[in-house]
Design brief:
Structural class: mainly alpha
Shape: elongated
Mean pLDDT: 86
Radius of gyration: 21 Å
Helix content: over 70%
Number of strands: 0
Largest sheet: none
C-alpha cells in the first residue's frame, strides 16, 4: 500500500550532479567564447582576403579560454550550489553525488549525438583540402563544426538530465 510518506513526488527538483553542472558550464563557455571568436573573424574576413586574416592565435586563445572558463565556471557553480544546500558546501565525498551510472550513459549519448556533426565537418575539411582551399577555411570549418558538435553534445546531455531517457 502506498502512503503519503512512500509516494514519490514527480514535481520535486532533482539535485544536479557535478557532471551536470560541468555540462552547463561547458555549454555556456563554448557558446560565449566561440561566438566572440566568430564576431572577431567575420569583420576581418569582410575587410580583407582570407589569406591575410590572422586567425590562428585568436582560435588558440578561444580554445584555451573556453577550457579554462569551463573549469572555473563549473567550480563557481558548484560552490554556489553547495551554499544553497543546507547552509554550505558539503565536504568532498559527503552528501554530493559526483558521478553515477546515469552520468556515464548520458555522456555516451551526448558523445554519440556530436559525432554526426563532427563527422560532417571533417568530411567538409577533407573536401576543402582536396580542392587546395586556404588553411583559413579548413581550420575555421573544423572549428565551427567542433563548436556545433560540442553544443549538440551539451544540449543532448542537458535534455537527458532534465527530461530523462
Amino acid at each position: 500500500m502506498v502512503t503519503d510518506e512512500t509516494r514519490i513526488d514527480d514535481d520535486e527538483p532533482i539535485p544536479t550532479t557535478a557532471e551536470e553542472r560541468a555540462v552547463w558550464a561547458s555549454l555556456v563557455t563554448v557558446a560565449v567564447s566561440s561566438g566572440a571568436y566568430f564576431a572577431l573573424m567575420v569583420p576581418r574576413l569582410l575587410a580583407r582576403p582570407a589569406e591575410e586574416v590572422s586567425w590562428v592565435t585568436p582560435m588558440l586563445w578561444t580554445m584555451g579560454l573556453s577550457i579554462a572558463g569551463s573549469v572555473l565556471l563549473s567550480i563557481v557553480v558548484t560552490v554556489i550550489a553547495g551554499a544553497f544546500r543546507r547552509g554550505g558546501c558539503p565536504p568532498a565525498g559527503r552528501g554530493e553525488v559526483t558521478s553515477d551510472v546515469r552520468d556515464q550513459e548520458i555522456g555516451r549519448l551526448g558523445w554519440r549525438a556530436s559525432m554526426g556533426v563532427i563527422s560532417v565537418g571533417f568530411g567538409g575539411a577533407l573536401v576543402l583540402a582536396m580542392l587546395d582551399a586556404a588553411t583559413f577555411w579548413i581550420g575555421n570549418l573544423l572549428f565551427l563544426f567542433g563548436t556545433v558538435g560540442a553544443l549538440v553534445a551539451a544540449a543532448t546531455k542537458i535534455r537527458l538530465y532534465r527530461r530523462g531517457f
